[in-house]
Hints:
The chain has 17 helices and 22 strands. It is α+β, with helices and mostly antiparallel strands. Helix 7 packs antiparallel against helix 10.
Amino acid sequence: MSSTLIRRAGTAAVLGLAATMALSSCAASGGPxxxxxxxxxxxxxxxxxxxxxxxxxxxxxxxxxxxxxxxNPFTSADFAPNMVGSNMCETLLSQTPEFxxxxxxxxxxQNPDPLTWVYQLRDDVTFWDGSKMTAADAxxxxxxxxxxxxxxxxxxxxxxxxxxxxxEFEVTxxxxxxxxxxxxxxxxxxxxVMQKSFIEAHAEDLGxxxxxxxCTGPFKFxxxxxxxxxxxxxxxxxxxxxxxxxxxxxxxxxxxxDTAITSALLSGEIDGTxxxxxxxxxxxxxxDAGELAFGPAPLAVNTFYTNPDGAMSDPAIREALQxxxxxxxxxxxxxxxxxEASALQTPAATFGTSEAEMxxxxxxxxxxxxxxxxxxxxxxxxxxxxxxxxxxxxVVPEQAETQQLGVAxxxxxxxxxxxxxxxxxxxxxxxxxxxxxxxxGDTDILYTTFWPNIPDPLDxxxxxxxxxxxxxxYGYSGIDELFAQAVQTEDEAERAKxxxxxxxxxxxxxxxxxxxxxxxxAVWQNKRITGAPAAFDYTFYxxxxxxxxxxx
Length: 552
């Protein structure tokens, strides 16, 4: 998963840990806030913001990435569509704000043999039109991703042989080979459930402004005024009695300009947002118009390699550029001073059940992120003359933060004596570089802010470092055999060892991603609302059901 419009980064977050972090109080030069001041402030990570005391008629919430291109869960793989869709379309399993995986639309399951998973669905769930959700709906939704290559979830179904409704509320998944990752991934849109008849009736326009979706979540699609807003209405017949929505209406706006967002937040025009502009951090913290909270997140700002025939195919050049790049400076100057250089491609908040083993590997590669030009030049001595003669081509989106990241990488390359070309893409066109090979062409390096489907390093690796992964445009295959072994390993301790070994190999080879900057999550709510999770959980979990009024 990826963002092209991220504004801030943060320090690594360990699951469930509330830690005080020091950070700069304003954004980088070039942004609205000017250069970061010398003074520091601190904050604590928290999972949830204070619970609401009242209902509220309407909540306006900004999508910091701008207007989504779709609300179709099959093709939603970014902040904007997922932030809206997660409140409408539910999944078989749930990943909570505490990053735990729990039953959801599937009340229970059995794994009678390594190739069979049987899911018992809840029998009290209805779609917004009042029709009952059954196994036929779940099977149809899963089979869409299984059989349709256009689904972003298609690759996750590679080990699935069949999905069948074996009872009114029972779904049986047969696998080609054991896969203990797939089960957990059903807590993301890989396990989404939509109404079968709606999918069939809208094969060509599912998730569009005129059609929307038909799901079971706490909010239902109302209208999409293109260029202006998306409105959801409360589902008064929502099945989950422990998560009844407190807001009668959600209105999502599409502001992307930092100054406009800040002004709207402080004036009350917008009630809340995730990822407020880092340039406005100090201003928001000092304001009595609302509260700015921070939570743990499985997020990282990374660069990744996309051209196996270019200069970055040489491991010595990859290592030299990694050592020469000022990751610490990028964190402090480009991302508001609240980023931290990461040791591995995967941040600590993804470690999950592999935390102990992954932490050992992270300690092996621990870094302060400062450039080491002496070591970089020594590493470059091992590069071929053919590779050194090639021009490294990098593309970043047209934003202050990402442009500064690109400039920092360019500066490192040129100090090493390497040829480098930096291209700035319009932000609304940058996604094409991520997913369209023709647009990408012979580009060597791209930027992403990456998050996994679930808090598990194997999920991260499947998308970025295994053959067929949606973010493995380089075609890296160095951990394919270990990955296949890991997902087939039932014992969690053994699986964790294999996971850590893959993390070590990926870090040593610097493919296909590089370690960059880990991030925390930030959320702003004005004084009339509260309840939104501070932890990063707004891409697959119905986070807005927690929001309500403060009585102010």
